[in-house]
Amino acid sequence: MRVGTDSSKFPGALAHGAAWTFEEAARHGLDGVFLRSPWELSSTLDVGEMREALAVAAGLGLYVQVGIGKVDPFTAPELPQIRDHGDGDYVRGLVRLVGTLTDLGITDLWAATCNYQFRYRSILACDRFRTDVSWPDQLVATSRVLDLLAPALRANGAHLDLETHEEITSREVVALVEGAGPDAFGITFDTANVLVRGEDPVAAARRVAPYVRATHARDVALHTTENGIGRFLLPVGEGVLDWPAIVGALLDANPDLPVSVEGVTTSRAEMTLWVDDARWYESDPGLDPVELARVRELTAAYEARARTGDAPTLDQLRSPLDEAESLAFVLDSARALRGFATRRAAA
């Protein structure tokens, strides 16, 4: 298994740029880097600078995947640099990024639908619950954007890999990919986000596995809070996820799948499952009660571990993290993932 890191949570990456990140990743024994944005390769998208940075990665034998932005058009105003890149046309900006990156040899491109606004401490932090536009209408609009991007992806031999982001269910991501065409679209499977939508991570992994081309790997703590159930991030192997089952499902479908650890910055990224709020259920008529029951079981199991001192308590989960802890999160996760892969191969 090739195990790398997501750049957005790798300490120092955003300050020092892609070439530095590639060198640091290799120094720590990682196999690749998942860049969230092409602007990390060059702040001006200078093709020469981008080639120089990618040459560093190639020389180190690293895989590289790059993100191009968000594809829900109701989120577009929050990414003005993409509209600027399209001379006022957001979709043209995305198409141009597809062309530039594929010319550089990058053919797996990340995208997500919306954003999560941590500064809001309510259900409205998640774009799924917007009141100016319904979630079904956002999905329809997103599918239209995918149809507009598809010709450029096919012409360039690329895949746009939609993330199982916190606002969208794995079922909805699969529907978007199947509707737009798996020859041009894939999935970035985030192991932690599916829990925010009340999904069993193993069931979600099996659901998306045929289309997964990229990953965000991290474990999860689940704990009852004043708002419902809190989801917190932990290094792989330290939380509630069944990694042998998840790794098995993903590698059975794609043995060459690169696995990128998405770490943490200064917090464990608490997100709420608003299980006491009717809006949470109304937004997802397809919510599987069996999977939600599994999430509740995982929550109870985690809380039992926390009570005995075998896992961080709620207060500890909410405590700030420093840079050393952020780096350890990535490296400990990579070590654990390789261990799971090794044991799977030996079985």
Automatic annotation (TrEMBL):
Pfam families: AP_endonuc_2. Keywords: Carbohydrate metabolism. InterPro entries: IolE/XylAMocC-like (IPR050312), Xyl_isomerase-like_sf (IPR036237), Xyl_isomerase-like_TIM-brl (IPR013022). The keyword Lyase does not apply. Residues 22-282 form the Xylose isomerase-like TIM barrel domain. PANTHER family: BLR5974 PROTEIN, HYDROXYPYRUVATE ISOMERASE. This is Xylose isomerase-like TIM barrel domain-containing protein.
